[in-house]
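One such shown below:

_____
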Amino acid sequence: MPEVSELAYTADVAAATAPIYERMKRVVPAVEWPFHAPLVHAINELKRERNAVVLAHNYQTPEIFHGVADIVGDSLALAAQATRTDADVIVLAGVHFMAETAKLLNPSKTVLIPSRNAGCSLADSITAADVRLLREAHPGVPVVAYVNTSAEVKAEVDICCTSGNAVEVVESLGAERVLFLPDEYLAKYVATRTSVEIIAWTGHCEVHERFTGAEISEFRSRFDRLTVIAHPECPPDVLAAADFVGSTARMIDFVGSEKPPRVLMVTECSMSDNVAVASPETEFVRPCNLCPHMKTVTLSGILEALRTLEPRVEIAPDLAARARLAVERMLAVKPK
């Protein structure tokens, strides 16, 4: 296979990738496709040779999400669905904690992260040592960790949760009080949905914390018939201004089922592009807060990872066993 710099937009590549581009032409300008298509074609060819799958988070750019991904979704859905594939190699087009979670649930598979720089401000806001100190300060209080945490943190907690099942997870513990980490805003949202006392850590997602209620009001003044849907990692004034609050998956489901004529998705802006592909009847107003870590994942990085089978995600067996238990406990919680 030629080097990335040598890949060309030939007639054969154009023909092979035409059906892929047809799906995303509303969100990827035609002038850009000749640059993406050779990489998309090479990745899809190499996946077959490696018996590999690409898992892409909703915040990936459309050429990755629609061009090379085999499984798409939020962080936990990606890892859980990967357990049902017979692929030998998993390429996680997302950030590092997501790749770790995929490895926890798929310990026998090779898991690759295309960018070593794909971190997460929220995951970085708390350490395993912080969790141990919290347990000392609140003896006997169970600890719930959002999946947006490192494997080291997961290994120190009782159970994990997603933004979609956080309330069910908290109530499954049968406790009067729980420690909830690391996202302060998600914790505050959960506290409005349950009688369990929530003790919150003060971490934030650098994408979602930049939105404001005043910004939502400004968009409403500029656009008629605007439906605002927000992720619960946003500040409380944003959630109060929204018409619907839900996880990444529930936001997507809302657009698909309600089909609003015009929608503002208050989350990472590539998600609007990806949802727009399947919702041509809806106009998307895009407040563009990009995740700088997600955007370090590129088509060329995915191709290089498949070529070299590096960088690999490795987790020490004893730590992995403890972290995996917290994730598996979450998976056992039945949704309402």
Observations:
- The CA atoms of residues 143 and 207 lie 25 Å apart.
- The chain has three domains: 4-119+294-308, 123-205, 208-285.
- The chain has 15 helices and twelve strands.
